[in-house]
Design a protein that fits this description.
The chain is built from 4 helices and 15 strands. 33% of the residues are buried. Helices cover 11% and strands 34% of the residues. The two termini are 21 Å apart. Strands 3, 4, 7, 8, 11, 12, 13 and 14 form an 8-stranded mixed sheet that branches. A 5-stranded antiparallel sheet has the order 2-1-9-10-15, with no helix packed on it. A two-stranded antiparallel sheet has the order 5-6. The protein is globular.
Length: 218
């Protein structure tokens, strides 16, 4: 539920071979329902992190939309995610992501990153919505051994040679790189408090898709 892109636009352009447009609006520390940067390999755009779902309360009243910001790999073929996985995949530039660690109500941020300073690519999918515009979600797989004491899931980190397959390959081929990252990670434990007052999203409802804007993605 928290990741960072703390690097300059020149470094992002160098790492991905795509220029970040002037004036594009995104945050360097991204939480659900905030704008993050994504690319289809040809252009960058800022989108809202999290697909909106509208749940209902005890009296069947509509509640405020909730962002579903993580898509489990074993759910990509279900109704909620299938169309986005098959037709609208993207890369999410990331420099590190955080997980809560410690006792309940005393949790702190523990950060994970790849060795080196360059941003890396996490697998994403996106969709247009009539609530928050274009939105994306991050694809998750089982966590690696370095994370086993903190969390049982982690983002899909894509090796550079798999970027094209993820972006434009057939769904069966694109699913292949959805694997747990077992190479070394750098871990940074901090005393920064983990603050997350949002409810855990569910997969029960889907917001209707708008017509696609041509073939340009994202």
């Amino acid at each position: 539920n928290l990741y960072c892109l703390r690097t300059g636009k020149a470094e992002i352009t160098h790492a991905f071979g795509v220029e970040v447009p002037v004036g594009v609006n995104y945050t360097d520390e991204v939480s659900p329902n905030y704008p993050g940067l994504v690319t289809n390999g040809a252009e960058f755009r800022a989108m809202n992190w999290g697909f909106p779902v509208v749940l209902r309360g005890a009296q069947d009243q509509k509640l405020a939309p909730t962002p579903v910001n993580n898509a489990r790999d074993d759910k990509l073929h279900t109704d909620f995610w299938r169309d986005s996985f098959e037709r609208r995949r993207c890369l999410i530039p990331v420099t590190q992501w955080a997980e809560p660690q410690g006792r309940k109500k005393r949790m702190t941020r523990t950060w994970y990153r790849l060795p080196g300073d360059e941003p890396f690519a996490v697998a994403g999918i996106w969709r247009p919505t009539d609530i928050w515009g274009n939105c994306y979600s991050m694809v998750m797989v089982n966590g690696c051994t370095q994370m086993e004491e903190v969390h049982d899931r982690m983002p899909v980190i894509l090796r550079r040679e798999n970027w094209a397959t993820w972006l434009s390959g057939a769904p069966a081929d694109a699913f292949g790189p959805c694997r747990t990252w077992n190479d070394q990670l750098e871990v940074e434990q901090t005393n920064d408090r983990w603050v997350d007052g949002s409810a855990r999203p569910t997969y029960e409802q889907e917001v209707a898709d708008l017509p696609l804007f041509g073939d340009k993605i994202p």
